[in-house]
Amino acid sequence: MGQHDHESGPAGARHVPVALSRVADLLQPALADRPAVLVDATLGLGGHAASLLAAHPQLTLVGLDRDQDALAIAGRRLAAHADRIHLVHAVYDGIADVLGELGLSRVDGVLFDLGVSSLQLDAEERGFSYSRDADLDMRMDPSTGPTAADVLNTYPVPQLARVLREYGEERFAGRIASAVARRREKAPLRRSSELVELLYEAVPAASRRTGGHPAKRTFQALRIEVNGELTALRTALPAALDALVVGGRIVVLAYQSLEDRIVKRELAARASSRSPVDLPVELPGHGAEMRLLTRGAEQATEEEISDNPRAAPVRLRAAERIREVAA
Ligand SMILES: C[S@@+](CC[C@H](N)C(=O)[O-])C[C@H]1O[C@@H](n2cnc3c(N)ncnc32)[C@H](O)[C@@H]1O
Description:
Blueprint: H1 3-8, H2 10-14, H3 20-31, E1 37-40, H4 47-55, E2 60-65, H5 68-77, E3 85-89, H6 95-101, E4 107-113, H7 118-122, H8 148-154, H9 157-168, H10 173-186, H11 192-202, H12 205-211, H13 216-227, H14 229-243, E5 244-254, H15 257-270, E6 290-292, H16 302-307, E7 315-321
Parallel strand pairs: 1-2, 1-4, 2-3, 4-5
Antiparallel strand pairs: 5-7, 6-7
Helix pairs in contact: 9-10, 9-13, 10-11, 14-15
S-adenosylmethionine binds near residues 70, 91 and 113.
């Protein structure tokens, strides 16, 4: 499927940014009526970015994506704002370097809309979907790094089992890893259909009634491993928060619990005091540096999910910097 299909064809028409008006409302106080800078760390097809640039005529946007195809599409979509956008091919854990190279030390807003884009999911040949046969690739940046097939065909069994258990929360991780090892002795796994067939055999039929499709968790685990998703987020989030000015805001949309847990912990740590609990007063410089803007994680409404089923798993969290970064 070519890029143009996503701009003008049905796939492009289907792409709706998740929680668009909520994201805009949360960022509004940090961006409105000033020459603000926003980092969109997961530019994707530029849906959120287009709306924010249109709403804030003085806004400069720094858009990152590790996927060159996404950057090309977003670049065309945002062409009307070309004089106030910087689109950068980068993994978001390089956020501090990207800002440094642009001569920007602090920013007013940050948006993370994590995971894969509809462009990536819909591109059959990239192998993200277990429902369509393709090479076992799953790289968000197809120009670099190991593929899902490399992981399956080269990892020692205990390491493969750990990936499936930790990143897929897969109960049958050991069983699946052993089945993969037996299979690859005969011939390497190459196609998603081969893996799906193996999973149907390895995952007990009885567990399907509660656990959903037997390939769902394994595909999630492989995607997280191939793209180093959690490692990148653990580095990127603190760097992004450190870059916010006082009054600056961050919004994060996570689609699976492992990512949401990282976001929840990082924001909670920064929104709580570092003074010892038994002290009656706040030690200077030890007060909370962020204020949470969401109570727990916000979920999509029924109405949004019926318009855009990909919003169903979203967990949205947001915070505002209220004090300078702790020394
Ligand atoms: C859900 S989409 C973003 C959609 C976007 N908000 C929109 O409205 O079009 C996520 C994007 O983030 C990118 N991405 C995911 N992890 C990344 C990482 N670690 N570094 C840079 N980009 C990443 C993916 O390539 C994908 O294009």
